[in-house]
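[09:14] KT: can someone run the structure on this one? pasting the chain below
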Amino acid sequence: MTTGVVAEPDSPVGGGWIARISLAVLGFWVVVLAPVQVLLPVQIERIDPAHKESSLALVTAAAAIVSVLAAPLAGAFSDRTTARLGRRQPWILGGSLVCAVVLCVQAAQGSVLGVALCWMVAQAAQNAMFAGLTASVPDQVPVRQRGVVSGFVGLTGPLGLVLGVLLVTQVVPGQTAGYVTLAVLLVVLTLPFLTTKDTRISEREPLRLKRFFAGFWISPRRYPDFAWAAISRLAIQLANAIATLYLLYFLRDAVHLGKPEDGVFVLTVVYTVGILVTSVLSGRWSDRSGRRKPFVVTASAVIAVAMLILAIWPSWPAAIAAAAVLGLGFGVYAAIDAALITQVLPKATDRGKDLGVLNVANTASQALAPLIAGGLISLLHSYTVLYLVAAAIALAGAVLVLPIRSVR
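[09:31] RB: done, C-alpha cells below
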C-alpha cells in the first residue's frame, strides 16, 4: 500500500521546477547523444577502422539491450522506494553518479570489448536516472499542464545534442577530455533538481518476486491505449535512430563532406532551431485544445518527409533541409507524445514501472536500429534504401497512434 502519491496532481508546478527538471534531463541527453554521435564512432574507428560500422552496431546494440532491461526495473524499484529523499531522487542521484564515473573509465578503453562493457554500464545508469525524471512529471504535474511542461523538457534532447557535440568537437575535442567533460556536466546539471521536493511513500507491499515480475506484463487487451502508444513510440524512435546512427558515416561516404564531424554539428544546430520553433508552442496549443493525437500524427508524417529528402537527394544542401524539417516535426512529436503517454498509464501507483516499460520503446529502437541499419549498409551499401526504410517506419508510427481512444 502506498500513501500520498496515488491521486493525480492538481496544483500546477512553477517555472523553477520546470527549469530544474529541464536541466537534469538536458544532462541526461548530453551523455546519451554526444557519445553516440561523435565519441563512440571516432573511438571505435581508431580501434577497428576496417570494421567500424559493424563494431559500432555491436556496441550500441549490446548497450541498448541492457537499457531494455534497466528502464522498467529501475522504474519499478523507484515506485517502491521509501527513502527520505523520496522515491525518485535516489535513482536520479545514483544513476547520474554511476554514469559519470563510467564515462571517465570509458575514455581509457582501447578495445571494442572494453568500450562495449563500459557503454552497457553507462546505459544502465542513464536509464535509472531517466526513470526517476520521467516519473516525476505525472507524479507532480497536472494533466492540463503536461503539454507545456513536456514542451520545455522536449527541448532538452536537441539542446543536449548541440551542447554535447559542440563540447566534444569544438571545445574539448580530445577523447579523454570529451568523456570527462560530459561526466562533470551531467552531475552539475542534475544537482539543482535534487533540491526540489519529491513524492514519498511511507508504506509498501512486501516484495513478492513472482508478482513483481508479472507486473511488467501490461495486457494489450486490458489496456489497449497503452499498447498502441508504446508501439507507435517504438516506430517513431526506430525511424529516428536508423536515420541518425550512421549520420557521420553518411556525410563522409555518401555526401563526401570534407569535415563530417563539423557537418554533424551544423545539422544538429539546424535541427535544434526547428525544435525550438515548435516544441513549447505546440505543447501550449495542445493543452488549450485538449487534443494530442492530431499533433502526433502530423509530426510523424513530417519526420517521414525529412527521411525522404535524405533518400532522394544525398547532398549537403539536402541534409540541411532535412535537418530543418526533422526539427520542426520532432519538436511537435517530442512535446505532445510525452504528454499523451502520461494519460494512458494504467495505474498511478505504478507510474515509474509503466513509464519504464514505455521507455523500452526508446531503448528497443536503439537495439534494433543497428541491426537494421547495419544490415542494410553491409548488404546493399545504400544510404538511399536506409532512409526510405526509415521514412516508411515513421509513417507507420503515424498510423499506429490513431486507434488510441482515451486521448483525443
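[09:33] KT: thanks! The chain has 15 helices and no strands.
[09:34] RB: yep, looked fine to me
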